[in-house]
Amino acid sequence: MGNYKSSTKAIYSLILVLVWILFSSAQAQQIWRTCVKVIDGDTIVLDGNEKVRLIGIDTPETKDPRKPVQYYGREAYEFTKRLVEGKKVRLIYDLNKKDKYGRTLAYVYLENGTFLNAEVVKQGYGLAYRYFLFKYFNEFKQYEREAQANEIGLWSDGRGEEPQAARENDSDIVYITRTGQKYHKEGCGSLRRSKIPIFLYEACKRRYAPCSNCDPLECE
């Protein structure tokens, strides 16, 4: 009888621990932060001076000292600023939480449910990012096509950048690591610590070399 009571108590304790873990996880997903500044159409700053790069989108440059302000860059900046500056947001992450510049990579949601990353592309203020795969890759490409078809935002007078046909049709995916200079096939032992999907053409463009161990597809 004593053993039964001990077992029952242990089970109840385990259940309580699991409930607490799930509750804590849910709470972590709902942490709201304030956007204190917008840097450009795809980069914002949160309280605590945390820079956040919106995953999956690319807006015209306005802040790169090496480049002039690009067409529709100011409009993209104003759009993002109008939507998010001074407002509460929560972040959802993808495979990688930081980029090489130390910025947080995230999907950004407002309290009213607006998905900021998607909205920028939907309204024609940015392009779907094509260099790396991400969770909403196909959806963002579709939003871009719809914005172009409807001639809104940077597509309104035909000056928007057309995605290269080769990029649209390229389906060869390889993997790189956070610090390495080679690209790999799925399952390569070199991908144990980090694994970033990338299109083969982009890996070649960035001068990554094929891994000699897993023998991935070669650059043409």
UniProtKB/TrEMBL annotation:
Keywords: Endonuclease, Hydrolase, Nuclease. One of its GO terms (molecular function) is hydrolase activity. CDD domains: SNc. Pfam families: SNase. InterPro entries: SNase_OB-fold_sf, Staphylococal_nuclease_OB-fold, Thermonucl_AS. SMART domains: SNc (SM00318). PROSITE patterns: TNASE_2, TNASE_3. Gene3D superfamilies: 2.40.50.90. Residues 37-157 form the TNase-like domain. This is TNase-like domain-containing protein. It comes from marine sediment metagenome.
